[in-house]
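[audit] Reproducing an earlier prediction to check determinism. Same input, same settings, fresh worker. If the tokens differ from the archived copy the diff job will pick it up downstream; this log only records the rerun itself.
[audit] input (472 residues):
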Amino acid sequence: MAEQKHGDYRLTIEIAIAIVLAIVTALAIPWIAGLGAEEGANLAERAEFYIVPLQMGGEIFLRVLKMLVVPLVIASVMTGIFGMGDVRKLGIPGGATVLYYISTTFLAVVVGLVVVNIMRPGVGAINEEERTALEQKSDPVKSKIYAKLGEDVGASDKEIASAFGDEEFADDQQPSMGTIFENLVLMLFTDNLIKAAVNMDLLPLIVFSIAFAGLLTTMGTRVDTIISFTKQMNEALMKFVLLVMRFAPIGIFCLVAGRFGEANASGTFLSELQKTGSYTMTVLLGLGIHAFVTIPAILYFFTKRNPYRFMIQMSQALLTAFSTASSSATLPVTMESAQDEAGISRKSVDFVLPLGATINMDGTALYEAVAAIFIAQVIGADMSLAEQMIVAVTATLAAIGAAGIPEAGLVTMVIVLTSVGLPTEYMSLILAVDWFLDRFRTTVNVFGDACGAAVVERAFNGNEQLIAESSS
């Protein structure tokens, strides 16, 4: 066991070194591209020669991780239900899981609102001329965002809009709170499991897995073969995760170097980061408070664990989350780290983490709340407490429905902005740095998932004791 632990920490160190080397490489790409170049040569095109292979390597690693997500979610959730032995045991842990995730997401929004109201990054962020130029843009930012995300997941912009509750996108109307809630509930169910699996719609797959596994626990020895197969599949998939993670430093190097290199080669990222520096610092401060104060306090209160030691134990998953910017793609690594490094029980890991990767989006919710108030400050709108509460509730609901894929928060932000009548055109102010901040908020999301598994583990243990006492 000691050797395994040593090997795991070595891999974590290798991933950390890979990220640092990737950033250095990204910064050096324009300089490398300029070596031997003739005067007036297109350096961006020359830089692309180095960036494309990196992006391809990173994309392969990301696709391999995503390839594991759907079968792993189904197998792990079903295995978690089987481990309870009786479907009645789901009640308290299931309720505790949902309560934890909703509560921490709402707390994240509150932290974001407090920080942005104190920092006020939007005041004086742009001048009158820039504001006029933004308002006169003919190409709506909303359309660009839906089109971009649709490109990533292979769907039309209308389907993307519908999936995130913006049914009125075609008419450019504001979705009501009722529409958002209705779509959130409908996201739990599907009329085609195969389609849900293809689109990586994890919520209906989780609902089906819970219901089907619960049914199997009531059928006795007649379904022993199915149960045994599912458990063995889960074990095999976790072994596959360990195999993939051997190549993680290379894949993560390519992912980070490719994305940072592309931004650096364009020559706009650093200037945009400087322009939105106050906003960026506000988001990072809010995420930092939630990650290093709020969630650790909850973890310590319920489990008496050292939250910062727990953070180190989960560091492999957190570094992967930062690199991939996808909580869904990171899920296999999160499950492996939570069980093998943090020592969380298999029952809690198998049930809580797949659900968390789907509905627990603390960082995303905080980011959306900060962005909404930032835009309000930019246009000089003085938002009342009631309007900010609407932002809080909408950001919580929208974040729960956000996909665990890169930059999905941009789409749900449209819902938050329209809920209080803020113009979506101003989102262009933060688009240039969104991919950068996305990595931090995804890392916070994954840490919140892991803490949720540790907290809810106590509910699993307490529930088992309660049922044992009632049986005797």
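[audit] rerun output stored. Observation attached for the diff report: The chain is about 80% helix and 0% strand.
[audit] end
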